[in-house]
User: Fold this.
Amino acid sequence: MTNSETAAAFGVFLRERFLDEQTCARIIAEIRDAPTTQAPVYIEGSPGNVHENVRKATSLHPSDETIAWVHERLLEQLPALSDHFKIDLTDCERPQFLVYRAGDFFVRHQDGNNKQLDFDHLRVRRISIVVFLNNNSAGLEAGTFSGGALLFCREGDAENAPLTLPLWGETGLLVAFASETLHEVTPVNSGERFTIINFFR
Assistant:
């Protein structure tokens, strides 16, 4: 299944080369040396925001200048995203920078736009963004990773079987999807999977 076929099946918005290769390489070089924390996950009624049985990944914290630059670039996409998803969007959150290393994953989940969620900042999310900073490659070329698909999931019903479709990382690719869409990050097999994520409201 190609990325284009995945996009068509789930209404996903794709923008290839949203960031060019040189920019992606520059950001990766910076965040490799940036401070880190364990990536959070928010579970209703659970103390703390680190649950490595649900999400195992590392948050990276680059300079304020890099964060602001990425934020502005993402905001430039607001009209195209509003048009594609047929909803009025106003702004987006502060971008997050992540690395998934070998064995890291994120189980099936929703990012927001669900009234049952227990956290205000999740309920107002409408569109989720993933920007890949490096390539997926089964051949283990330098600077790439294997595994770590962004897997979209559709629940089955009386007429349709459940459906899962993977989307594979490409350097500079921006992926946008409705925040209530079920999705996961499959385990990374090798290498490091660098991404930027954000959420439009």
The chain has a mean pLDDT of 90. Helices lie at 3-10, 21-32, 64-75, 78-85, 120-123.
